[in-house]
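sry for the spam today, last one i promise. struct tokens for design, 347 residues
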């Protein structure tokens, strides 16, 4: 579907679904009262699951691991892969001028995204009959109850009792149609960067209103579109704004944002440590300061505080130690270089 059509689809706040030869519209601009009722229905089902001792996520995963349907390795991968993707996105951004390297990194990102999608879908299927699965299903059902309308835009069900007695085959078809018709984050980001949305977004800043409704009624897609549009505005206004082709590349722009965030955090931590060290004269005048950490992640954070020269010096020092075995500090290459520089200054 063309970007223009997708834009107006979000603006309409409706999803057209065809079931049993009839056309319906799923409207997702719920009032606060309707959202509250959806949440309360989910809370009620969750409480019922607890009372009936319905299996929970943790127990289901334990059983599936015992029966070799799932694994602890899969749990680790679900946590690990997003971090790997983040690092690869930063590598992609830094490889901006290296075409072949960029393409290689893109393949690695895609492979990890595909693997993560498969793992998450498998886990979702396993949890279908658990407390969380039943609660999520309930939320979807009540979204349909409040949002589904006929071609005349009249609600399909007059009351909740009629809805609960409706054939499940019909409801399942509506869910299938809606799921197939939903927009991905990638698509919403593309819409946010392009016309006709950019002009609509720009004009809305003067009018002070979007979608013809108060912001509290926005659908999830409308809310996401506003958030991404605001983010792109902030990026364009940034003094460090990257080139447009980076902005138009989701993965590369993510890499730029992650890198920016890491640099800010490294600067903050560096300033914090330097502030503490400055209070100790012995440490303040030292060429090197070793900081004790508890985990490898902490060590990586400390490593990111070093500038490029310090990191190069560290790498050369480690290579020298590996080559020589046991080495005194004063015999290290950087220590010798400092001595030569000091001697030259005294001449």
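last one done:
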């Amino acid at each position: 579907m063309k970007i223009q059509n997708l834009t107006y689809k979000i603006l309409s706040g409706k999803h057209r679904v065809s079931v049993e030869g009839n056309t319906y519209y799923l409207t997702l601009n719920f009032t606060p009262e309707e959202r509250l009722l959806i949440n309360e229905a989910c809370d009620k089902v969750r409480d019922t699951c607890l009372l009936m001792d319905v299996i929970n996520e943790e127990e289901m995963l334990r059983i599936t691991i015992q029966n070799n349907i799932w694994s602890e390795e899969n749990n680790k991968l679900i946590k690990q892969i997003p971090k790997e993707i983040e690092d690869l996105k930063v590598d992609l951004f830094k490889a901006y001028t290296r075409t072949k390297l960029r393409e290689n990194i893109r393949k690695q990102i895609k492979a990890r995204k595909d693997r993560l999608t498969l793992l998450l879908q498998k886990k979702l299927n396993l949890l279908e009959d658990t407390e969380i699965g039943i609660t999520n299903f309930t939320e979807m059902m009540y979204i349909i109850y409040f949002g589904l309308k006929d071609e005349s835009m009249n609600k399909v069900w007059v009351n909740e009792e009629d809805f609960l007695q409706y054939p499940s085959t019909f409801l399942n078809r509506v869910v299938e149609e809606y799921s197939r018709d939903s927009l991905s984050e990638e698509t919403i980001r593309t819409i946010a960067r392009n016309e006709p949305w950019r002009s609509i977004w720009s004009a809305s800043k003067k009018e002070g209103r979007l979608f013809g409704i108060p912001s509290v009624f926005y659908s999830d897609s409308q809310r996401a579109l506003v958030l991404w549009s605001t983010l792109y505005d902030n990026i364009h206004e940034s003094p460090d704004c990257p080139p447009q082709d980076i902005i138009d590349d989701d993965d590369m722009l993510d890499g730029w944002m992650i890198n920016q965030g890491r640099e800010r955090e490294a600067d903050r931590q560096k300033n914090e440590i330097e502030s503490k060290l400055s209070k100790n004269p012995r440490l303040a005048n030292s060429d090197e300061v070793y900081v004790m950490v508890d985990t490898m992640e902490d060590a990586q954070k400390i490593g990111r505080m070093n500038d490029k020269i310090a990191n190069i010096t560290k790498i050369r020092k480690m290579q020298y130690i590996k080559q020589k075995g046991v080495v005194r500090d004063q015999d290290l290459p950087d220590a010798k270089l400092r001595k030569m520089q000091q001697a030259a200054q005294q001449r």
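The first strand starts at residue 14 and ends at 19. ok im logging off now
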